[in-house]
Amino acid sequence: MDYKKSNAPLNTATRDMMDLCKDTGNVYETVAIIAKRANQIAGEMKHDLDKKLQEFASLNDNLEEVTENREQIEISRYYEKLPKPVLIATQEYIEGKIHFRNPAKDKFSMGD
């Protein structure tokens, strides 16, 4: 999933938790699934931002010589304006784009 093309809201939205947990039947499991995906998205976003900002790092930089770069500021602002990872993950969950399984439930059903 490309987080840049997500149709997640930019602001938090109230959700009906009972509606969200229909697939799992457990509110806590649903929250854990969304949280794990949000951590993955946050990692992707951080990696992409670091990779883009690395182009601006020079080998001779020290604290006194740091100068502001317009392009660097624009890249940072772009990433700040993206929806937060948890909002993207929640939208993916609602749209059914997150595939998950619970090993404990799988083990239990196999033992029958």
Task: Determine the mean pLDDT.
Answer: 82
Structural class: mainly alpha
- Largest sheet, described in full? none
Helix fraction bin: 55-70%
Order of helices and strands: HHHHH
Poorly predicted tracts of residues: none
Label the overall shape.
elongated
How many helices in DSSP terms?
Answer: 5
Number of strands: 0
What portion of the residues fall into strands of 2 or more residues?
under 5%
**How many whole angstroms does the radius of gyration measure?**
19 Å
Cα-to-Cα separation, first versus last residue: 36 Å
Describe the structure in brief.
55% of the residues lie in helices and 0% in strands.
Task: Give a verbal description of the structure.
By secondary structure, this protein is mainly α. It has helices spanning 17-20, 27-54, 70-81, 85-94, 103-110. Helix 2 packs across helix 4. It is elongated, with a radius of gyration of 19 Å.
List the SSEs and their pairings:
Blueprint: H1 17-20, H2 27-54, H3 70-81, H4 85-94, H5 103-110
Which keywords apply here?
112 residues; elongated; 55% helix; 0% strand; mainly alpha; 5 helices
